[in-house]
Amino acid sequence: MTGLLTVLCGTTLGAGILLAILAFTPSLVPRRKTAPGRRGRLAVQVVRWWRRALLAGVAAGLVWWATGWPVAGAAAAGAVLGLPVVLAAQRTRQTILVQEALAVWTRRVGDLLASGAGGLHHAVTRSADTAPEPLAAPVQRLAERLHTEPPEEALRGFAAELDDPVADEVVLALLLRLRAGGRGLVEILHGQAAALRARAAATREVEADRAKPRTTVRTLVAITTTMVTGLVGFARDYLAPFDTWTGQGVLLVVASIFAVSLWRMHRLAALPARPRYLAGGQPS
């Protein structure tokens, strides 16, 4: 049994290292530019998770080889895959950046319309040169679409690319102006810009409060990892009971409880997802 475990461990480690080398080696075939929008973001996520999965395989092989415990190898792989998601707040930070950028851009479009920029097409085109960084490329593509596509179709494409209910609110105001006409769009855009700034500020305050327990969890994970590594390296006799199948079962239960606790805390600290108003291209 020990020989079989050694072979499996070595095979896993070797395959993980080989796949990791292949993952980070540049391709000799020129890549096509990924289309913007949800499909482009999905492609980026696939590549990110593919590389993370390869690193998880390497970590599993190393930990299994160092400890001889298959459960420890599986736990290491799960940590590589899950900890960046559980302990990070990238989605919330991105939401805040988009809200602040939309506030600046919406205010800019409203000011251009108020100054007589010559209609929505000209206002959007002129705003593309000074759009905030998170919106620079999408606004530029919106300006290009407005010259080649019907205005409503171009605006819906802009909303689909951002894939955010906050952006849908701004697009809906512009769509209503296109359909119904009339005055009042400048005031609506200015009001939305002020509301977006207030929402972004409130989200920052909430995220600041949620960052404290998240930091505590990071510290707890670091202490636990350091303690287990020290025990494996310097007090292996103390961990001898885990060398049995019963010990592996106990280790599996402990690791599962730890993982479920971290995931539950992540769910409690995450912002709830809001439904989009223009999901599927139609108001919802």
Short description:
This protein has 10 helices and no strands. The protein is mainly α and 284 residues long.
Please outline the helices and strands.
Elements: H1 2-23, H2 38-67, H3 70-87, H4 90-114, H5 120-127, H6 133-148, H7 151-162, H8 165-180, H9 185-234, H10 245-269
Helix pairs in contact: 1-2, 2-3, 3-10, 4-5, 4-9, 5-6, 6-7, 7-8, 8-9
Would you mind describing this structure in some detail?
- With 284 residues, this protein is an all-alpha fold.
- Among the domains are: 74-180, no CATH class; 215-270.
- The protein is 78% helix and 0% strand.
- The protein is elongated, with a radius of gyration of 26 Å.
- It comes from Saccharopolyspora antimicrobica.
- This is Flp pilus assembly protein TadB.
- The chain crosses the membrane at residues 12-29, 72-89, 220-239, 245-263.
- Keywords: Membrane, Transmembrane, Transmembrane helix.
- The computed structural class is mainly alpha
The count of DSSP E runs of length 2 or more, i.e. the number of strands, is 0
Please compute the radius of gyration using only Cα atoms.
26 Å
* Parts with pLDDT < 50 across at least 5 consecutive residues: 1-7, 18-37
Tell me, rounded to a whole number, the average pLDDT: 78
Query: What sort of overall outline do the alpha carbons produce when their principal axes are compared?
Result: elongated
Number of helices: 10
What's the main sheet like? none
**Could you tell me how far the N terminus lies from the C terminus, measured between alpha carbons in angstroms?**
59 Å
Helix coverage percent of residues? over 70%
Q: Strand-residue fraction?
A: under 5%
Order of helices and strands: HHHHHHHHHH
